[in-house]
Design a protein that fits this description.
heterodimer, A: alpha+beta, B: mainly alpha
């Protein structure tokens, strides 16, 4: 499953599971200690430098080898990592973190709050250049200081609601290794390869890395947290799922990050534990929402047309045929897997072609002689941009279902396949005036801020793939970002989901499950956000153990 | 024509072709819609300022002709640029990949040549017999298979017997003894090299068979027969040596294309070579990596053809002055 992943979430896809008790890591006397867990991935690591990396496996690796201030537990609540506790000032602008005392990096050097302060300050300092890929995590941050070895004080220019979510994504780097690259224009921060063996502070030390082949970890004896049960961990990269699944079945691996729905039966019948969980992911149908779009397809702004399109999508068929049953019909742009941020009152629009036809009739789009309706004097025949993210997976099957049903209501869809970069260029071309429709997907963060930001005017040409731009929406977005009361913020986030579901820049098609598998000779792999090998938490690989 | 003239002329043509390939290579990626910056700048809350900074950093703000001149100049100095994705010099990355590709391609191709020549000669020698029928049909059968399909079938067929991916046992924490490591690479190479051999040998069989049939009809073969020489000797000493001439061209052409053709094999068997690198670079819009990869492929084809010309010149007196 590919998709557009905010670079810093990178919820990888991972092995997984068995939701046994977790959070404790090593220490249980009844749990078997030692062993090497061999994990397979159909993705890869592009760089071990956090200021360069893009691939999700890289961020999941950083989670294992570097301290993060906080992490998520399986219930998606923030729990301590390097920060044992934290407080927020009454005005919401100052956050104080109390970090682990007497912590050490794997090379024996002290690991203190100063390392965290240096990391955040460096990101801030070079945010418009070398550290730009991390700049989103320090949005509105004014400074980060360490008054002593166990205290980190982070100040913000304005109250920020999602501070923990932002800081959770930042690997804290060893200042004594990295400081020499953060000089001058900071360019060296991106050219430093950060080669193995890497001075690590997390539960594992990265000891070997062969690009496109393998990354190997050993348990870090200096880790400040609960020691993992396993001695070693390895991640092998594969060019295809077929090779990866073959390796799993033949005992060359203990687990794999992602099982394609078509292979679930094979993997299960081979005796592996298969775990599926709702994914923080959705597939969408995009309707150009730019009010200034070309007159030749401006009827796409008509709310009746949008509603008709929504009714004409057979989400049950998509789940059954495209996802082979491993998923749920989609409704809101904040998926249910985000937990309490999902607005349960935004439900999937039922499939009803009669209703869809009625709505188009009501809009005045009469059926033409060749079975295609006429809107504002031209046939309702649209080019739908299909990026390789969509066509490379099951998106083609979903498209065929939609295309067939749309034909029944007199709307013709003509696919235009492009690679992802070209697809985004085609959508944004001429200030979003040219494109008509598209089908793509999103992997949001757990915190809703990022996904909601995609529809803001400020996100045009960066993430916005609908041309949607509304001052009212932007104001509400700003309000949720500054709402320090969780209840108040949840209310605004709910309201925004309702707005999007009503205005329909996206028609959310489905929420695909995350499916992982591992050998039955392992247990204790919990999932966080549906994933065990992920950038959200250290807990899964602290708790995995041999049976 | 003097020998030196021939070599200089052929060399000149090769250089011109390389230059044209470099030029097409450069412009090909830039006329496509989309850009690397639109991918790289897609970070949460990224500003237009960042997009601009990246555009300037990669020199994409300059006119195309200026980018082209810079590219030529740097290339001349051996600098193929820095990978957008890895932020490391392309030449280093591709060299490492090439080192992995060459042994696998060499083993697969040599095996294909040996099997192709042997089956081709056998077919021609026993023309019309059952061995000829079996050999020819088998060759066509494998030649017709899509590489990726055959690779997948072998992968599934040998699951649990041979390694499914990579070029050595990945989960080795220390350093393996040299010979053990070589053995490990050899076992991992079996499936990808076998796939390459099976998809490539068919064309050798057919060319050798056809060339051999032609040669076996020549007067000097008849003379040899009339002299009472043993058939085995006529075939191997007289006919085969002359029939192999077209193989030189075929091998040169195939080798060049094979370097590109291994892309599918490398993806299927996760072989960390130049094909896999290019496959990943395409998805990431990593222009410098793609340009470097394509350049190496183009130069391989041209240089191998040049070598084939020279070998022809040496072997075939008919094209000498």
């Amino acid at each position: 499953m590919s998709g557009r992943v905010p670079r810093l979430l990178l919820a990888a896809v991972a092995v997984s599971m068995v939701a046994t008790a977790c959070g404790s890591g090593a220490g249980g006397s009844s749990v078997k200690q030692g062993g090497l867990f061999r994990l397979g991935s159909a993705s890869s690591i592009d760089s071990l430098n956090p200021f360069v990396a893009f691939q999700q496996d890289a961020y999941s690796t950083f989670e294992q080898i570097y301290p993060m201030l906080v992490q998520y537990n399986p219930k998606l609540q923030f729990v301590p990592d390097f920060a044992r506790s934290w407080q927020e000032s009454p005005d919401g602008r100052t956050w104080t973190f109390h970090t682990q005392p007497n912590a050490k990096w794997s090379d024996g050097k002290p690991l203190t709050a100063a390392d965290a302060a240096w990391t955040f300050s460096t990101i801030l300092k070079f945010q418009n250049g070398p550290t730009a890929n991390s700049a989103g995590t320090t949005a509105h941050m004014a400074s980060a200081t360490a008054p002593n070895a166990t205290t980190l004080v982070v100040t913000y220019k304005q109250p920020v609601a999602n501070v923990l979510s932002q800081l959770q994504q930042v690997p804290i780097l060893p200042e004594h290794i990295w400081a020499k690259y953060a000089t001058g224009n900071g360019k060296a921060l991106t050219t430093f390869a950060n080669p193995a063996p890497i001075v690590s502070g997390g539960p594992f030390m990265l000891v070997k890395y062969t690009p496109k082949q393998i990354v190997l970890f050993k348990r870090n004896p200096n880790y400040y947290g609960p020691k993992p049960h396993i001695d070693e961990l390895g991640l092998q990269f594969f060019g295809t799922y077929d090779a990866e699944i073959t390796a799993l079945k033949s005992g060359q691996l203990d687990g794999i990050e992602t099982v394609p729905p078509t292979s679930v039966g094979t993997v299960k019948s081979a005796g592996f534990d298969v775990h599926q969980a709702p994914g923080n992911y959705f597939d969408d149908f995009i309707i150009n929402s730019n009010p200034q779009q070309e007159a030749s397809h401006r009827e796409l702004l008509n709310p009746l047309l949008r509603e008709a399109f929504d009714y004409a999508i057979d989400r049950q068929a998509i789940v059954k045929t495209s996802l082979l049953g491993y998923g749920q019909p989609g409704s809101s742009i904040i998926p249910p897997a985000t937990g309490h941020w999902y607005n349960p009152s935004v439900t999937p629009t039922p499939f009803n072609l009669t209703k869809a036809a009625q709505l188009l009739n009501q809009a005045g789009f009469k059926m033409g002689p060749n079975g295609v309706r006429i809107a504002d004097g031209h046939p309702m025949s649209y080019t739908i941009i299909m990026p390789s993210d969509t066509t490379g997976g099951y998106g083609d099957r979903s498209f065929q279902i939609i295309q067939t049903d749309f034909k029944k209501i007199g709307v013709q869809l003509n696919p235009k396949n492009l690679d992802n970069s070209a697809a985004f260029s085609a959508i944004t071309a001429n200030h979003y005036r040219n494109f008509e429709l598209s089908m793509w997907d999103w992997v949001p963060l757990i915190d809703p801020d990022f996904m909601l930001s995609v529809l803001t005017c400020g996100s045009w040409n960066v993430w916005n793939d609908t041309g949607y731009c509304s001052k009212t929406y932007d104001q509400v977005y700003q309000a949720q970002g500054a709402a320090m009361s969780p209840a108040k913020r949840q209310q605004i986030v709910y309201q925004m989901q309702r707005t999007v579901a009503t205005q329909r820049p996206y028609l959310v098609l489905d929420y695909a499950d995350l499916i992982e598998a591992h050998s039955k000779s392992w247990a204790g792999l919990v999932t966080v956000g549906g994933l065990s090998w992920c950038s959200l938490s250290k807990i899964p690989f602290e708790s995995v153990h041999q049976v | 024509m003097r020998s030196a003239d021939y070599v200089i002329k052929r060399g000149f043509f090769a250089l011109v072709t390389i230059f044209v390939a470099i030029t097409i290579n450069f412009f090909l990626f830039r006329i496509l819609p989309g850009s690397a910056v639109s991918d790289l700048s897609r970070v949460p809350h990224a500003s237009p300022k960042l997009q601009h900074a990246l555009t300037v950093e990669f020199g994409l703000d300059k006119p195309k002709w200026q980018q082209y001149l810079i590219y030529l100049k740097e290339l001349f100095h051996g600098n193929m640029g820095v990978s957008f994705t890895y932020q490391q010099p392309v030449s280093h990355l591709l060299l490492a990949d090439l080192k992995n590709t060459i042994p696998m391609v060499t083993v697969g191709t040599v095996a294909a040549i040996v099997v192709g020549v042997f089956t081709g000669v056998l077919s021609a020698w026993r023309r019309g017999s059952a061995p000829d029928q079996v050999s020819t049909h088998t060759a066509i059968f494998f030649y017709a298979f899509p590489t990726q399909w055959l690779g997948l079938m072998l992968l599934i067929l040998f699951a649990g017997i041979l390694p499914a991916a990579g070029m050595s046992n990945p989960f080795v924490f220390g350093t393996e003894p040299f010979w053990q490591h070589m053995g490990d690479i050899g076992i991992h190479m079996l499936l990808p090299a076998a796939t390459l051999m099976l998809t490539a040998y068919g064309s050798y069989t057919l060319v050798v068979r056809s060339s051999m049939l032609e040669t076996l009809g020549e007067d000097y073969v008849l003379t040899a027969r009339a002299k009472g020489l043993p058939t085995r000797r006529i075939v191997w000493r007289h006919a085969v040596r002359n029939a192999l001439l077209p193989m030189i061209t075929l091998i040169a052409l195939e080798l060049g294309f094979i370097v590109g053709g291994v892309l599918l094999i490398e993806v299927i068997f996760s072989w960390p070579g130049i094909g896999l690198a290019m496959y990943q670079a395409i998805g990431e819009r990593d222009y410098p990596m793609l340009e470097g990869g394509f350049l190496i492929l183009a130069i391989s084809v041209i240089v191998l053809n040049f070598i084939a010309d020279l070998v022809y010149f040496r072997l075939d007196p008919r094209i000498r002055p």
